[in-house]
Amino acid sequence: MNLQKLFLTFFGSGLSPKAPGTMGTLASLPVGLLILEFMGMETLFMLTFAITIIAVFEINKYEVITGEHDQKEIVIDETVGIWLTLMIAYSTIITLNYDFVYEIGIVISFASFRLFDIWKPSTIGWIDREVKGGLGVMGDDILAGVAGGLFTSLILMGLDKVL
Q1: Which of 4, 19, 86, 101 has the greatest number of C-beta atoms within 10 Å?
Q2: Domain count across the chain
């Protein structure tokens, strides 16, 4: 496997024959959590930003080579999306004080991101359908990540009121 494919499949997680997007998200989740916990929000943000820029160009090149748009094996977009969800949710988690908020936040973050990434409501779906190339592949997951993070934060704040 060459470096480009290793990057775009997030270390091969996108090569899973079943649910490659979910597998890519599951592989990216602990990596994002480790970066967040040991290197901080700023580092995770900068890595997410850098990966996004590199991914747009690498996806464009990959699509020229393969002749296909948004192949299922490309899951670097899921990496960026779940990391955005985690950053937004983490900003809420650190303000709350109830049992298991961190663990609940991680589970809800995963579910929320996958919900918006699969459902693709509104602008997320429009970007997925209409924007071609690397920008389109990355764009819908960026918005799904932001929506997932905001949705997770709303749920966590709601739970804070009832627990």
Answers
A1: 86
A2: 1
